Amino acid sequence: MAFRLAAAFLALFAFTALAQDFPNRRVTIIVPYTAGGSSDFVARTVAAKIQGPLKQPVVVENRPGGNAHIGTEQVAKAAPDGYTLLLAGMTTHAAAPALYRKLSYDPIKDFAPITNCIDSPIAVVSHPSVPAASLQDLVAFAKANPGKLNYGSAGVGNTLHLAGEVFRSVIGVDIVHVPYKGASQALGDLLGGRIQLMFDLPQTPLSNIQAGKLKALAVTGNERLAILPSVPTAAEAGLPAFRFSTWIGLVAPAGTPAPVVNRLHKEIVAALREPDVKDAFSQRGMVVAPSESPDAYARFIRSEIDRLGKVIRGANIEPE
Question: Is 187 contained in some domain?
Answer without folding.
Answer: yes
